[in-house]
Write a structure and sequence with these properties.
This protein is about 60% helix and about 5% strand. The chain has 12 helices and 2 strands, in the order αβααααβααααααα. Helix 2 (about 25-40) runs antiparallel to helix 3, helix 3 packs antiparallel against helix 4 (about 70-80) and helix 9 (about 165-170) runs antiparallel to helix 12. Residues about 1-20, about 190-195, about 220 and about 225-230 have low confidence and may be disordered.
């Protein structure tokens, strides 16, 4: 195993890990999450106290691992979010962060910042955890979410299943029953039993269609009655 591979291996969850590589994949997404957490907790600017200084240092640690634009992003962050710092203090803070190049593990960063469950959800955080959350806790939480997702999928499948009576109504509700009546009268008018067919009430076809639509879930006030001979 190479020395570089050992250097990049994360340490224990309650400690920070120092990487020899400047850019870290997780650190590319973490700055946005920290900015959202800052907005939830402090607003647009960090306070000039210990909490503000701790949050500043953790965000600088992340920006130092976020790629070639990290130094410029760190300069802008301190200028707009930490106006209580002097120019010399800003430069010193940036140099210290880029010199140590420290990457925080998900559990360690969540514990250090004291992230609550509400803050974690509101800031849409994915790269670090709620304070006090262990690997076992995360596994149990994922299992609960997966079970809920599967239940929702099964419910959606049941709701999307169309009853047979609804299929019949959808197929026949658009039928032109007056045209059917006219066709039957035309056919039977050419036969010897035309006089007998004249005594039939062809309006029953429309009543049958109305009853089928009612069976599919239409309002009772829209339902007609079946003809006596149906």
């Amino acid at each position: 195993m190479s020395t570089a591979a050992v250097a990049r291996r994360p340490g224990p969850a309650n400690e920070t890990t120092r990487f020899t590589k400047v850019e870290n994949p997780v650190a590319r997404f973490r700055p946005g999450e920290l900015y959202r957490l800052m907005a939830v907790r402090h607003g647009r600017k960090l306070p000039a106290n210990d909490d503000g200084a701790r949050f500043r240092d953790r965000l600088l640690d992340t920006l130092a691992m976020s790629g070639k634009d990290g130094r410029l992003r760190a300069t802008n962050f301190l200028a707009f979010r930490c106006g209580w710092m002097s120019p010399a203090g800003r430069e010193d803070a940036i140099e210290a962060a880029f010199r140590r190049r420290r990457f925080w593990t998900p559990e360690a960063l969540g514990n250090d910042l004291g992230v609550t469950e509400t803050e974690h959800a509101r800031a849409r955080i994915r790269t670090f955890r709620i304070a006090g959350m262990t690997d076992a806790d995360m596994k149990a939480k994922r299992a609960v979410k997966e079970a809920a997702r599967k239940r929702l999928e099964r419910l959606q499948q049941r709701l999307e299943a169309t009853p047979r009576v609804a299929i019949f109504a959808d197929t026949h509700s658009t039928a032109d029953w007056s045209a059917v009546e006219l066709a039957l009268r035309t056919v039977f008018s050419l036969t010897p039993i035309a006089s007998a067919m004249d005594r039939l009430d062809f309006s029953g076809f429309a009543a049958i269609a109305s009853a089928a639509r009612c069976a599919a879930g239409r309002l009772p006030t829209q339902c007609g009655s079946l003809p006596a001979w149906a």
